[in-house]
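Sample pair:
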Amino acid sequence: MKALGIVAVVVSALSVVIPVFGASYLPIIAGIMALIAVREEPTLAFVALGINIINVAFLSPILLVASAVTGCAGEVASGMEEIMSGNYDVDTPDCGAGSMYWTYLSIHLVAAAIAGVLTYMNKKA
């Protein structure tokens, strides 16, 4: 399991520098590997999970941009049609920008909480 913990840390570190997949898929894969390795190597697992949380929370603006684009695409298109037809009284769309961001961040925070519980349960009295 030590090797799996090391691989989780390496994948987490690589996900910081890879633009699109580093914000979405690689941290989740590294988080799963860290959860598997948490019983044998809790230090490496928590390092990997910490890198994932920092990556998703602060270093990945692509999540906010992608969330805004997917949430607002239809709203902006309909607003542009109204403006082009002469109706200038168009409301600002409520895009829900950030739902993807909070989903990915929640996944990593829940993984860290599960790892904490597993580590607590694994400690010998």
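The chain has a mean pLDDT of 81.
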